[in-house]
Amino acid sequence: MGIKVTINKAEVPEKSEYPCLKISRLETLVYFTGPRAGTVLSASFRHVGEYSDDWCEENFEPFSGTVTLEND
């Protein structure tokens, strides 16, 4: 049994405050809790749940779609 993650994109204003969701060009979705600090929610090349306080936020854009977590 695993976790199924479904992501639906939507347009978002340029300005965002923390906490917030941001997504990279490589489709890495991160829950940012502060500047450069956050946890991976979905990614191809990272581990879900991975935390870093050194994200390169200029590689991310605000995300305002929906994220659905459910047991697989």
Q: Structural class of the secondary structure composition?
A: mainly beta
How many separate helices? 0
Strand order of the largest sheet: 5-4-3-2-6
How much helical structure, as a percent, in the residues? under 10%
Outline the low-pLDDT stretches.
Answer: none
Distance separating the two termini: 6 Å
Largest sheet: 5 strands, antiparallel
> Multimeric state of these chains?
single chain
Please report which band the strand proportion falls in: under 5%, 5-15%, 15-25%, 25-35%, 35-45% or over 45%.
Answer: over 45%
Number of strand segments: 7
Gyration radius from CA atoms, angstroms: 12 Å
Q: Quick one: overall form? A: globular
Q: Calculate the mean pLDDT score and round it.
A: 89
The total number of structural domains is 1
Order of helices and strands: EEEEEEE
Please describe what this structure looks like.
The chain has 72 residues and is an all-beta fold. The chain has one domain (3-71). Helices cover 0% and strands 47% of the residues. It has strands spanning 3-8, 20-24, 29-34, 37-42, 51-52, 60-62, 66-71. A five-stranded antiparallel beta sheet has the order 5-4-3-2-6, with no helix packed on it. The N and C termini lie close together (6 Å).
